[in-house]
């Protein structure tokens, strides 16, 4: 039986996941308790820049309790492409040969906890229908939509549109977590990291952020960024509602 201290630690570690799931659909007390019971093992702390150890052979999953994590590829000449970001409350999974070829590393100091049992319980075929499973299904749908957005961003949008849309997407994710207030966005990403996400050179990234600032749309600072005109930024992103910056409410 877990003591009160262990239960309190689990609640703190899973709080971002509980908040995010509840933003998609109510999970109730039973769902909350199931989330907290599904995580085991000691939290792992990784400093910024460190690799996140994952085991694709056993479909390992980890919950991001705090910090930001990137997944991407490194080219032979040293360039890299970030294909996805994991924020607090996200579950990262390593499964199959594709994931084995991708790098997963900490963009900030991070804390993760083993989420394999949680992932297996809710993702296996025939999982029992429940409010929690419905919230998880919608959460996974949003994750697939983010991947589609990234493909569209890199394939069809110019630098100005890419940057506007990425910032709106990150704002939306933080609204779900309750960490965004108005247009204020927690953004612990350097311009080099933003360039790696958006497929731009560092110089082009800097010029694009300056243009957004001149147009009074974004006041970018590493750590905290202000989206000054959300409707204007939506227009600058130039995407339809289907792949646009906001996920329609359930």
First-last Cα distance: 37 Å
- Main pleated-sheet profile: 4 strands, antiparallel
Stated plainly, the CATH topology of the largest domain is called Jelly Rolls
Query: What do we call the CATH homologous superfamily of the largest domain?
Result: Jelly Rolls
Task: Report the CATH C-level class of the largest domain.
Answer: Mainly Beta
Q: Provide the succession of SSEs.
A: HHEEEEEHEEHHHEHHEEH
Strand order of the largest sheet: 1-7-2-5
What is the 3D shape?
Answer: globular
CATH architecture descriptor of the largest domain: Sandwich
| Total beta-strand segments | 10
- The helix content is 40-55%
Q: Proportion of β residues?
A: 15-25%
The SS-based structural class is: alpha+beta
User: How many DSSP H or I helices?
Assistant: 9
Rounded Rg: 18 Å
Q: Which stretches are poorly predicted, pLDDT < 50 over at least 5 residues?
A: none
InterPro entries: HTH_CRP, RmlC-like_jellyroll, WH_DNA-bd_sf
GO molecular function: DNA binding
Protein name: Crp/Fnr family transcriptional regulator
Organism: Brevundimonas naejangsanensis
């Amino acid at each position: 039986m877990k003591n009160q201290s262990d239960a309190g630690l689990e609640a703190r570690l899973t709080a971002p996941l509980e908040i995010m799931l509840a933003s998609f659909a109510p999970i109730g007390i039973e769902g909350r308790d199931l989330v907290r019971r599904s995580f085991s093992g000691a939290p792992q702390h990784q400093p910024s820049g460190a690799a996140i150890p994952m085991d694709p052979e056993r479909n390992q999953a980890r919950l991001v309790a705090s910090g930001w994590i990137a997944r991407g590829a490194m080219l032979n000449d040293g360039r890299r492409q970030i294909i996805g970001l994991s924020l607090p409350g996200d579950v990262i999974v390593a499964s199959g040969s594709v994931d084995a070829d991708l790098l997963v590393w900490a963009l900030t100091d991070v804390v993760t906890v083993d989420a394999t049992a949680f992932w297996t319980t809710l993702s296996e075929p025939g999982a029992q229908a429940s409010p929690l499973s419905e919230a998880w299904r919608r959460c996974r749908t949003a994750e697939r939509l983010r991947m589609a957005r990234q493909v569209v961003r890199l394939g069809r949008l110019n630098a100005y549109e890419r940057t506007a849309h990425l910032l709106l997407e990150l704002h939306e994710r933080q609204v779900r977590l309750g960490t965004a207030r108005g247009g204020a966005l927690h953004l612990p990403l350097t311009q080099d990291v933003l360039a790696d996400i958006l497929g731009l050179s560092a110089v082009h990234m800097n010029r694009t952020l300056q243009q957004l600032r001149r147009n009074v749309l974004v006041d970018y600072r590493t750590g905290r960024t202000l989206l000054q005109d959300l409707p204007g930024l939506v227009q600058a992103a130039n995407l339809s509602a289907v792949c646009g910056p906001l996920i329609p409410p359930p």
